[in-house]
Structures are given as C-alpha cells and as structure tokens.
Specification:
The chain is an alpha/beta fold. The protein contains 7 helices and 14 strands.
Amino acid sequence: MSVIRAAGGVAWRPATGGGIEVCLVHRPRYGDWSLPKGKLEPGEHPLLAALREVAEETDVRGVPQARLPSVSYRSEGRPKVVDYWSLRAGADGGFQADTEVDEVRWLPVAAALELVSYPHDAQVLHAFAALPPVTGTVVLVRHARAGTRGTWSGPDTARPLDAIGWAQARTLARLVAAIRPVRLVSAAPRRCVQTLDPLAELVDLPIEVDRDFDEPEAGQQPVERALAAAARLTALASPDGPVVVCSQGKVIPPALERLTGRSDDFTTAKGGGWLLAFTADGLLPPDRL
C-alpha cells in the first residue's frame, strides 16, 4: 500500500507584548483546527511542499529554521507521513477564506495546544516549544558534479561542472531560493562557484569567495581546515536571514562533526546539502536536504 506524503510547518511570529504566536488553520470540510500542511506534488521536495502549502493556506511566506519531528498516521485507509519545519513568518499576502481553509488564528503555543484537534499536531507543537531560539540558519551544500580529476588536464581548482552538474545546480537553486537566502558564500574552486550561479541569478545576490571552505592545501592538516570551516559557519549564521555556503566533500563532514560533537554520517552527495540551525548553545541536529 502506497504511503501518502505530505509536509507542513509551524509558522510563528513575535507576539505584541513579547513571546511568540503560532498559526493554526480551520478546515470547514473536517471542522478541525490543525497545523497548515498538504500533500506533495509529484517529484516535489518535502521542504518545498511545506513552504508552498503554508503559503497557500495562510498567505504567509515562511523562512525555514529547523526540522521538526515527522508524524505518521492513517488517512482514508492509507498510511500517511507528514514532515514539518519551524518557519519564521515572513511576508503576509493577506489571508482570504476559501472552501479549504476558512479561518486562520495566531495563538500562543499553550493556547494552540488547547485548540488543535489532533494528537499528532500537538506532538509537533510540543517539539517546537522545546526548541531553543534559533539565532541563525545556514544552508551548507556540496558542489555539483564536475566530472573526475583524471579526465581534466588543467588545475583542479579550475575544473568546471559537467552537464549533470549544471542540472544538479539548477535543481538545487529552485529549492534553496525558496528558503530566501540573504547571502551566498563559496569555496574558491570553479565548480563550487558555478554550483551557486543558478541560485545567484534567481535571488539576485553576488557570490562571495571564502577559502576557509576549500579542501586542505598541501601540507595542511585536515583538522585545521575543519576547525576553520566550523568557525566560519558559526560566524555566518545571522538573524538577518539564511546564508548559503558551497563547500567540498572533504570539508563538510569534519566541519559538521566539530559543530555537533558527534561522528555521525555527514557524507554529502554532490549537489546535496544540509539546513543548519544555530542557537546560543550551538548547532541543532543538521537537517539533510
């Protein structure tokens, strides 16, 4: 039996007088109050689906901050899995009621927990409430495919993306543009800068080169570069908005190990990446994109 895939978010905003409010929607078809969510379109990334569904149901454009627990339950006799993210509310287009959602309420978390209709939504709200405040987010990606070193006769730093790499870069750009970055930073190699080119065009931002995200140079200890990259990622995390960093396969895993203090599998596919949420106490568990 096929699984229904869906995605949504806990959209939040500062409340007048302090604290925060989260968004619930009322669906007249079911007479329930729930978190905004909806089914994935064919081939759609769950995070893109979460942003799209929240925007469609609440007219709020959210900025992703941290991954929340996924929930599983049965819907119409089939298993259903819903992925959730914490979304800082950005632009608001002005809610207009329709047949799917006829009312939106912004409430303190405690009040939302009393109103929400389903235990699985309450579970997500409890997880959201337990998160420390996010002080900045970084999207850390590995460069897209650039052939192999053995087939390139020039300097390795000049090796360009191949056709598959450019396709990966364009796919990555559509996802990351929806996260609404405010800054783009790349390691120096040509393939890293090119990976961000389609994104730079979409969001109209320059690409800054930072050699702290390059692979170790000859004679340099890998731990030195891991420490430098981890420090730069922490420094780049800003409340101004998400920062995108493109680095390399020998840099990303050890940098994440340094930031998390764990030796998890941080291997990153070419053209893949992570959503990193920083707090005053450090990095939350990285969310593999």
